[in-house]
Amino acid sequence: MRKILLLILILAGFFDALYLHWVYTSPNHPLVCLGTGCDTVRASKYASLWGHALPDYGVLMYGVLILAVLTEAWLSSPAIRRWIQLATIAIAAAGFLFSLYLTGLEAFVIHAWCAWCVGSAVIVTLIFLLSLADLRSPDLDTESGRFGLRKRFVFVVVLMAAIEVPAFNYLIGRPEQPAPGQSVPAAILDERLVRPDSHATGDLSSPVTVVEFGDFECPGCGRVEPQVEEMLAQYGNRIRFVFRQFPLRDMHPYAETAAEASECAAEQGKFWQAQRKFYAEQDDLTEPALDRYALELGLDQKQFDSCLASGAVKARIESDLADGRAVGVKGTPAFFVGHKLFFSVPFDQIVQTMNQQLAAASQPGGTSASASNAAGGGGGGFGSFGSDTGPAFGAQSELNCSPDELKKQQPTLIHTADVQQLLQSASKPLLVDVRPPAQFKGDHLPGALNVPVEKIETAGGSLPKDKTLVLYEGGKGGASDACAVSRAGARMLLSQGYDFSKVKVYQDGLNGWENAGLPVDK
């Protein structure tokens, strides 16, 4: 029985490693994650070794183990079988120790969990324990025993193939994301950018349409939301504004549930109220919090809870995600004005293009399409956008949420006790508050220097390189999100050549400092 279970585990591990190998070599396909953090782990510097992706070694290891177990059942020589068993133990032990190391990296360095990686670690641990227990297998001491085991092995291989082949085809059949720079045909944009049932507000008959693909847990989306609200206040009677769901599931654990909650609110006619509420409260989008927000929005609680529990709106989220990938969306917030995609650009460029399309549409016989691909520039101002209230949207690509950002070197995250220890050391760190000046003036960590995140790209070089820099923001552990402004600012510094060991991010933030009862400067 142990031999049968051992073969099942090895085949399961081979499937896991083979899928990860396919994903790593097919970067335009989304990684189907059974939890959170898969793309974070995949994008880390620990995802490859000696120029090869780690799944390559997994495929090799499990492949060798399959050959070893099957070969053992077909050999009659006890001495050779013994050597195969010892080799199996040695390979499984190496896999177990390396998986233990990788799991530690996920827990304490990367701060993200990949379900596929954890699954492989559990599998190889069980294989190691079973191979130890199987040092001597009486069933293989006789020809009849080996023959019976061979028949069971054939059955197991056929059964696992019948399960794993369709599963693999399903996983690799997920829609491919357009490669960077790949143009999307106008016909696809016309068909998939806006659906008849998409959430729309403003002048629904306007020739100019602005579409946002958003994630309620994305800090960049939250930062740009006030600018979107101001845009709607000024242009709401002249444009059609559409919101599409694009939760980055591998980066934000609560984004998909929040998206479903907003769709449940839509069933009661309050989608836009929920959309604004969830962006405003994106630090806490757990289910208890969503229930509380539903009550504050005046929703029928029983109907809301039933909708959320049933999963009835999941299909709509999947449809939005599929449409987003089809039209070239890679991260959030992403905006379309007509057929033109905007990501990682100042918000003023979006409005300039919108003004161009409005002007073109106002001409006799004019349509917004004539300006849909126009470059930025001209077209009128946009009030106080990009003001002191917060960083300008997309001033740096690091301020947006995209799996591509995770491929960059990530800073070390530290907590309150770590900051206190650094402050008590002989070489004290420089605390860098990356919030806007207006927020910094309210309160900040003692002795902190204010360098708003949008200025780090230009002013970052003036920060000392011989001191430890500790970047922080407002609160609630926001830096646990890879898209947080403090982590984005730290990535900018690392890209400018700052020593990795001297750039750190205070994950608990100002709120964590105050919650610990520590003094702040006003």
What is the overall silhouette? Answer: globular
Classify the beta-strand content into a percent band: 5-15%
Q: Give the name of the CATH architecture of the largest domain.
A: 3-Layer(aba) Sandwich
CATH superfamily of the largest domain: Glutaredoxin
SS class: alpha/beta
Low-confidence stretches: 368-397
Please count the helical segments. Answer: 19
Assembly classification: single chain
Q: Classify the fold: give the CATH topology of the largest domain.
A: Glutaredoxin
Mean pLDDT: 85
Let me know the largest β-sheet: 5 strands, mixed
First-to-last CA distance: 69 Å
CATH top level of the largest domain is Alpha Beta
Strand tally is 12
How many domains, in number, for the residues? Answer: 3
Spatial sequence of strands, sheet with the most strands: 3-5-4-6-7
Overall radius of gyration: 27 Å
Helicity range: 40-55%
Could you describe the 3D structure shown?
There is one protein chain. The protein starts with a helix and ends in a 7-residue tail after the last helix. The protein folds into three domains: 2-172, VKOR domain (de novo design (two linked rop proteins)), CATH 1.20.1440.130; 186-375 and 385-394, Glutaredoxin; 408-515, 3-Layer(aba) Sandwich (Oxidized Rhodanese, domain 1), CATH 3.40.250. Helix 1 runs antiparallel to helix 5, helix 3 (54-74) packs antiparallel against helix 4 (78-110) and helix 4 (78-110) packs antiparallel against helix 5 (115-133). The protein is built from 19 helices and twelve strands. The chain is 50% helix and 8% strand. The strands form three sheets. A five-stranded mixed sheet has the order 3-5-4-6-7. It has a five-stranded parallel sheet with strand order 8-12-11-9-10. Strands 1-2 form a two-stranded antiparallel sheet. It has 522 residues and is of the alpha/beta class.
